[in-house]
Amino acid sequence: MILALVGYLAVRFIRSATSEGCTAHGTDGTAVTLDLDQASHASTVAAVAHARGLPEQAVTIALATALQESKLRNLASGDRDSLGLFQQRPSQGWGTPAQIRDPVYASGKFFEALVKVPDYADLPVTVAAQHVQHSGYPGAYAQHEAEAATLANVLTGQDGPALSCTVKGVGKSDTQATPAGGGGGTGGVQADRAGGTAGVVQGSGGAAHGVAAAVRREFGKVPAAVTGAGDSVSYRVAETTTGWSLALWLVCHAGALHATSVTFDDHRWSSDASDHGWTSVPAASGASSTVTVRVN
Fold it and tell me: Residue ranges of the domains in the chain?
């Protein structure tokens, strides 16, 4: 009895000591570790690129830029009037301060400028980024290229369950997701308000509807929700890469979305065992092409 109690306490201590964060594993053996705030922003950048039908290289360029400009933080200040992930400036026509502090908006504006650069996907990352940013340190983006390329490859779903996040306390709070401009948090997944931002609304079925709204806002119209009742939302996807991109986005935003599990392609991530990463689950009919997220 005593040994059993000691063993139980040891496991609880180890799990409680496990720090929160996300790690992406590249095919070349490299690993990129981010905290939950950074991971949520990185996955938002990839989601916005997906909604616009942009290639993986566009995500690499955007992530290298955000790593240099803000370390993937939704900054409330910077050089002169620079703000947000990309340190965009209201005085330079990037938008209002509130808009720029919205990671979905900021990512969209970055991509709008990037696609106007001729043959941007064939340019060196630092050259493409500089065409958008007009930085005083044009070579600085190159130092983040390898890290950004690994994240882009993983977050666009190319390598399946190559990213996992360790989280604590998901589903144990009824608080809403952090609003844009508040504390440098998720930003892209936030309370509904004038301006059309998607919300995670609590109440009967509220969190599930909030997930669906957030996915629509960041991923666009595809994939479409096929169920949304009760405590889950499911998406049928045509491509495995799209499924994994969505599944990883859900995991990176698990805290704000109150996501307790994400299942896709015979794999499951669970918030109550998040330190174990993705685990194999028995194949179910149609499950290999369906992403399902359960919320609390």
Answer: 23-155, 199-295
